[in-house]
Structures are given as C-alpha cells and as structure tokens.
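Protein chain data
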Amino acid sequence: MKRRAFITLLGGAAAWPVASRAQQSARIRRIGMLLYYSETDPEGQDRIAQFEQELQGLGWTIGRDLQIESRWAAADTNRLRRYAAELVSLRPDVILAQTTWAAAPLQQLTETVPIVFVGATDPVGAGLVSSMSRPGGNATGFILSEYGTSGKWLELLKEIAPYLKRAAVLRDSTIAAGIGQLGAIQSVAPSLGVELTAVGLRDAAEIESTISAFARTPNGGLIVTASVLALSHRELIIMLADRYKLPAVYSLRRFVTDGGLMSYAPDAKNQFRLAAGYVDRILKGEKPADLPVQAPTKYELVINLKTAKSLGLEVPASLLARADEVIECGASSSRSSAARRLGRSRHARSEFPAVGFSAPVRRESLFRGCSVSPRESLANAAPHGAMNFHPCVLMVSRARARSPWAPWRKS
C-alpha cells in the first residue's frame, strides 16, 4: 500500500469515533409523561408548560433534540394502566410520572427505564424507592409533602375557626400516606382541644353519608389530606363543605381555586420545574439511584375570602398577613363555577406596585369573567385597605403585614 493511501486510511479510521459520538449526541432523546390530569385541564397544561420551559432553559429544543410523549390518564385507573404500558413499550430515555398513583404501575412494568415522579406521597412506603437519600432503583423525584406538615392543617383550621371542637379527616386508608398524614394530625389534636373522626375516600356514597352524619353535631370542620382519591372527589367534598357550612382545609391549592376555603401546600409548578432538572441530569448520564428524593422547602397558604364569607367566618388579620394568595370572586355565577374560571386563566404579572413591605412582594391577578380592567380595579380600591379591591381580583403576597397600595403605575 502506498504511503499516501495508508495515511488517508488511518486518518479516516481515527475520525470514525468522532463521527459516531456526534451522531449519538445529535440523536433525538425521548421523554414519556404520565399525568393525572385530563388533556383539556388548564392546570395540567400549565404544569407541562413549566416543565418544557425549564428544559428549554437547560439547552433542550423540543422537536429538534427532544421528543415528548404525553399520556393523560384523567384520574381513570384503567386508562392509567393502559397508558403506562404504552409508554414503557416506546422505550423512552426517561418517564415523568405525576403522583405515586402514576409512578407505581410504571415501576411494575420496567426496572430499567428511569422514572422521575412529582407530587408523590410517601414513595418509601409505596415501594418506589429504598430511601429518600438513596433511592436505589430506577425511580426518584419530588414528594408532595412530609408527614410533619400535616399537623399544620389542623392548626390553620383552628385559627380560622376558633370555635372548632371536632374535625373529620378525609384520607385514603389504603395507602401509607393516608395513615402517616392522619398520625401527624392526631399528634397535635390534643393540644388544640379537637376531637378527630377518620373518614374514608373509597367512593362518593361513603363520603357523602359520613360527612352528612358528622355535620349533625356543631363546631366541626374538615381536613382533606393528600391523595388521588381526594382530588378525584374534590367537587363533591367542596359541595358538602358548603352545604353543611363546614370550614375545611385542603392539601392542594386546586381545591381553593375550585371554591374550597383554604389550603396549605407546596408550589406544584415548582415541582415540575425541579423535575425538569432531574430529567436533564438523567439524559446527560446520571442514574436515578444516585439522585436523592427531595421534599418541598416552602409551602404556600391560600385563602378563599368569598368562601369564608359564605361560611360566616371572619378571617383573622394575622392569618391574612401570612397568606401567599387571597382569592375573592364576586361574579354573579356560583362560587364553584367562578373559581373554576379563575383556575382556567393564566397567571398574569400584575402591575400593582406596593409600598411599606419589608421584603419583595410577588403579585398576580386573574381577570377572566370580570368586566373591569386591573387599572379600574385599583382605582376602586380603598386608599388604606389592602383587601378592599375589586371582588374578582386574586392577590398574592408574601408580606408579613398588610399595607396600603401605592398609586397605579406601569412597572
């Protein structure tokens, strides 16, 4: 072989690994998503938008180097199992699973495809991971809450309804999280002088009959713990709380935007953003077994003032000052339908600057279904009453004290 031909052949051989690596890095990566929501649910769409936006910020481009296969189970167990099998058969690089309910059937089908879960309740008790710090298998992610925070629900309920002597705890007794959350609530009940009654969430008939019987005795309230069953029956639970004038605290913000009184829960959108970070790390070679399960570091208090008024409750100023969101809607339609309209609207950055707060304040407003603009709403506000704004405004603040609003201006 001539020397020149030999050098050309040798150079081509050396380039093969480089070309191979370039082709490998350029291949489209596939993400599967198994979601609790229905495809038309605006809250679900918002969560996915947060997830995709975070991935794009990490350098991925959907349609170029990333493909997402979404399956919307719509709280249907049969559909969930079918979609879980579909996603696993596609052999994606990683699957995002919303809640333990979605992650469990996926893990039963595969021990090799990485799974990142969000909003999970007790992944250790459910068998998804060996421990929080060392998951040890093909799944990791972010939990909805720790058991210790469940006692806060009863404390808040007692604060907004000081007369409270009895509380019905709605929980799914078939999952470890239902038992753990109830135990945490029981640990604080004696110090608050509250008697607890456990209520199952097996079906609508059981929920209605038990709450109806519970409401016959006065000075009662409801605590709705975190579970897929509770979320599935949320409209019934909110309706019963309204019918029997029972103050209630919920484990998810969704209940409050649908007309419930109050919730104390982590920011669900933030969990989807964090999940995108874990997905990115897995796509770049890290293993779920090496990524610790994370718990929320911040919880948000949300209060629906119109519901409080309907229940005859005067929300203490100290509680309002600690609220991250205060929702009020005075539209002519019913509270539940009006709140659902608010839930379907995208959060828009408000142009209402404030004065007198010691820390930065985030505000958002929702105006779907309202006949006035944000400018008109603020113009109608009382000069020295932060809560005297238009009845279809949702204000968000992390302030520790109430403060008058500054005049409206563009930021």
In short: The first helix runs from residue 3 to 26.
